[in-house]
Amino acid sequence: MRAAGPHAGSCDAKTARRVGIGRCYHRAPMLDHEEKFLFKEEILHLTSSLAEPGVLDNVEDLLTDVITSPRFDSEVFTLERSLQVMLGPRAGSTLVGLLTVAPDVFDEVAEVRIPPEIHERLTAWRARFGLAIDNALNFLNNPDGIQGHNFATQVAHVDDRRVLQGRLTLVRYNNEPQFFLADAQVFYGLIADVLERLGPYTDGETIEPDTLARLKDALALIERRSTPRERA
Known about the structure:
The chain has 232 residues and is α+β, with helices and mostly antiparallel strands. The protein has two domains: 13-140, no CATH class; 148-226, no CATH class. It has helices spanning 13-19, 33-50, 55-68, 72-77, 79-87, 89-100, 103-106, 116-140, 184-198, 209-226; strands spanning 148-158, 161-171, 177-183. A hairpin with a 5-residue loop joins strand 2 (161-171) and strand 3 (177-183).
């Protein structure tokens, strides 16, 4: 079962890995007989929690609020805990995993005898919310979650002064860009911090030769441009 937060359900990690729940949108091997039994037990327990009056609508409202929230990242991070409060620790964890589980494993739900309305809701939730939730959880746990970037410069007039500014754009997992605008000094400080922290752990395989050459050329240019010119 995927743990989106610090709280784990009663389905232990070993069982979850064996059942296959929690490996989102990746092909998983078909379940063997014992795994099918464990999977069935988890689905039946989840179904009993969802069968309470009004619970299906409440869960759908929660998922809709999360997926449309301006604070999507933080809401997704606490989604499992919210579902655990609503459904119980075990069922909440099962639902998060089921929404994002591999297609072959999700297909096993059809073999478990559960009410048609609950099966229809689970299928609809997975189709509507599963991929976005999976991508968000992967992004939160993936240091390579930034899909692209762009940097541009501009000159602003502040208090009758010309100020060099930078505009950094980061393209995220959902293709939504985030912009950061700041004075050049802020970005120089950021670059220095990044290089100081990466440096001690860098080797020949960590940085491409072309990138290293660009850094050298850029630093040389900055040194030339920042050195005061001697008066003739």
